[in-house]
Amino acid sequence: MIKIAPSILASDFAKLGEEAAKMQAAGADMLHIDVMDGHFVPNITLGAPVVKSLRKHTGMPFDIHLMISDPEKYIPDFYAAGASSITFHLEAVEEPAKIIRQIKSLGLPAAVSIKPKTPAEAVFPYLDEVFMVLVMTVEPGFGGQSFMRDMLPKIEKIRTELNRRGLDSYIQVDGGIDAVTAKEVVKAGADVLVAGSYLFGCPDPKTAIADMKALGSV
Ligand code: DX5
Ligand code: ZN
To answer: For this structure, is 174 an active site residue?
Structure first.
């Protein structure tokens, strides 16, 4: 089963509630919320107060992607704001196992993400503890960048290792995903597709989402 997570980074921030409703009506499984701090990545987006406001307008699962330093300081705020799962970057912390425990102790599923230059093996020590691994297919920080095709072997490597351990955890991909690249990442073993500019920019997100989901059954 392929799951689709539109990234609100590509939406109109002045009407987040409507944008979320549009994607829910189009068949999206969750909303991907990009949190950037201007420190871990060279851009600033939104924080827990915005997530809290948006929570009042939609029941959609919130897939929180933290691209921030010191995520442990802010995880409780995102939990309280209505997060459904929390992903943090391995490169941002010294003790990933501690952060995973923190997220799980709040009753939320925890996921780890790696930037393009971080090798697949970096997540191996945590595979038994997370429900999802996010493989960045662009340098985190901005929407609308080109898909990095050389990330495909990384996805394959992680899927192979998950299979070897008998785990059916999700592999999420994020960055430059559209109708063409979706096919490639699904073939490599990804099953949660984040798409920002593609879904918010296309005239018929319903068909686009249905087509991407159908990749899981070919
Ligand atoms: C980038 C973010 C992405 C971004 C993807 O750092 O993590 O979620 O919104 O945007 P597109 O799909 O436009 O590449
Ligand atoms: Zn993201």
So the answer is: yes
Q: State the closest ligand 1 atom to the C-alpha of 36, by its place in the atom list counted from 1.
A: 6
**Where residue 217 falls among pLDDT bands split at 50, 70, 90?**
confident
- Among candidate residues 13, 18, 14, 57, the one with its CA nearest the CA of residue 33: 13
Give the ligand 1 atom nearest the CA of 43: 6
Taking the centre of ligand 1 as the mean of its atom positions, its distance from the CA of residue 107, in whole angstroms, is 26
178 is catalytic: no
181 lines ligand 1 (CB under 6 A): no
Q: φ, ψ for residue 26 (rounded to 5)?
A: -85, -5
CA 117 to chain CA mean position, Å: 17
- Beta bridge partners of residue 32, listed in sequence order: 7, 63
Domains of the chain by residue range:
3-217
> How far away, in angstroms, is 168 Cα from ligand 1 center?
25
Q: Which two tokens stand for residue 130?
A: 């997370």
Q: Which ligand is nearest to the CA of 175?
A: 1
DSSP 3: E
State pLDDT tens for residues 183-212.
999 999 999 999 999 999 999 999 999 999
DSSP 215: G
Asked whether the beta carbons of 64 and 50 are under 8 A apart, the reply is no
Predicted structure pTM score: 0.98
Indicate the SS3 state at residue 117. coil
Report the CATH architecture of 3-217.
Alpha-Beta Barrel (3.20)
